[in-house]
Amino acid sequence: MNFNPFGALDAATLSHETVLRTEAGDDEDSEQRHRQALELKVANFGTDSVNTAFSYNALGEALLRNDKLAEAEEVLIKAIVIREVKGPAFDAAVSRENLACVCEAQGRWAQAKDMRTRNRENMVCSHYKCPGTTFLMDELKKCSLCKATYYCSIKCQVTDWKARHKRFCTPTEV
């Protein structure tokens, strides 16, 4: 691995462009740009760096949006392995939440709940656009139907229900 400052800059530029493409609703282009950024980060920082973990997580999110669930699971696991050791607690919680969303989309409710509650002292709200902070599990409310998603407020729960969770939620005894 040879660090190339231009390669690192190219990766950062691609990551920024990807955010813009995602906001524009172009998930396919976003996914491709995340793949390119990941390749550059692996080449410049290695497979186990925090920088690379950021791209694993971002690619996992893009794959989840594109319903490529098996591949999303694979890259999110890589992000979690790195982030739980090297990254801030918030970043690890975000990657766990993203993987829980993959499990949820696959109907694997017990695994979704287990992933979310793996670290009960550092959880994030299940609403994707909730402001970035971690919570203790006791500070969150869980969905009364599936019992596998957790929210910091009624507002986040209602917003996530309309945007995402309603599609997947089923009553369960998890």
TrEMBL record:
Gene Ontology molecular function, alphabetical: zinc ion binding
Coiled-coil segments: none
SUPFAM superfamilies linked: HIT/MYND zinc finger-like (SSF144232), TPR-like (SSF48452)
Keyword Transmembrane helix among UniProt keywords: no
Top-level taxon in the UniProt lineage: Eukaryota
InterPro entries: TPR-like_helical_dom_sf (IPR011990), Znf_MYND (IPR002893)
Signal sequence range: none
Gene3D superfamilies to which the protein is assigned, alphabetical: 6.10.140.2220, Tetratricopeptide repeat domain (1.25.40.10)
Domain MYND-type, residue spans: 122-169
Keywords, in A-Z order: Metal-binding, Zinc, Zinc-finger
Protein name: MYND-type domain-containing protein
